[in-house]
Amino acid sequence: MTPSKSPPRSTKGSEKPSLLQTPQSKKIVAPPPIPRLIDIIEGAKLQLASMGISPIDGVTGIKKVEHGWELLITLVELSRIPSSSDVLAEYAVSLDGIGEIISYKQVQRFLRNQIGIDDGE
Fold it and tell me: In whole angstroms, what is the distance from residue 61 CA to residue 107 CA?
């Protein structure tokens, strides 16, 4: 006579819920990453270049505002020889919080060798 085997014990009812389980209804959404300043500047340069606004001579100012960013960018509008007589233009560029251009406008035109007046802003 062979001994009878007992059926395997079920563990379904004896499992304890894990403390790491979270209810499916609570999903934590991380805030979007804050863009780095260099990424804002480089992104603005690329967007302006794609609109045919170039060559960019430099970024002369950047400021964080409530809705995003404001940049001052200097462009070479007319190259001359010697380069000290190049015609430059300064543009004020408004960007949203992720660096997309919202608007831009020309602020002033000047010769490269022209000394500007600093308004202190």
Answer: 13
| Alpha carbons 79 and 120: distance in angstroms, whole number | 29
Is 52 or 1 the better-scoring residue by pLDDT?
A: 52
Structure-token pair, residue 64: 């964080």
Instruction: Measure the CA–CA gap between 67 and 84, rounded to whole angstroms.
Output: 37
Q: What's the pTM value of the predicted model, to 2 decimals?
A: 0.65
| Two tokens, residue 25 | 């209804």
Strand partners, 65: 68
Distance CA 4, CA 83 (A): 101
Cα atoms in the 13 Å half-sphere on the side-chain side of 94? 8
**49: its two tokens:** 């270049």
